[in-house]
Specification:
Radius of gyration: 23 Å
Number of strands: 7
Strand content: 25-35%
Distance between the termini: 56 Å
Number of helices: 5
Oligomer: single chain
Structural class: alpha+beta
Length: 218
Amino acid sequence: MTDLDYTAKLVKGGLVVIGPNSGALLQIIALQYNPETLTRSFQMQTSGESSDRSQPLRISAAPIETIKLDAVLDATEQLEPPGRQPTVVEHGLHSQLAVLETLAYPRSDDLLANDRLAGSGTLEVLPIEAPLTLFVWSRSRVIPVRLTDLAVTEEAFDPALNPLRAKVSLGLRVLSVDDFGFTHRGGAIFMSHLQQKESLAARSSAATLSVIGLERLP
């Protein structure tokens, strides 16, 4: 048996952008290098105030979950041979950074359409609906999210000042059925994620009371 038989294929994390109603695949953003750390935090949503003793165990909604990660982009390996990635040779990392940055902007076509509506005397111009973004971190974690923070640190440049190396910090807020409702595609994806989480929790080996120093409950 060769060493290759033991080598697992590296799965990359990333973002998938789909149509919010149609579910049509619009864009796949695979991270060039997987981050070494991923920070997740949960803000619990409980019923009533902490001083309310009538319903201390009731959960009113899914927790507000946030995800933070740092991704590294490096154009060096893409510049050799020069003909393999002509866009990188000409623009450096501008194209890859633009893919992430456009997640923070409404589409220019939508802005122009709203401007035409306002100019024609439309009384109410609705806010622009963005595509649905999914954070993908293995098969066990496919979650609808909204980009909340984006910071880019460009660290190296070519002679034309195109960035060649950059660190991107992403802040994401997980969206749940409390945001979408149950009939929206985003709500269905969240429910699938929650059910998979419950299934994984059921597979966990249960500890015994003796492990935590108890013989019985009070």
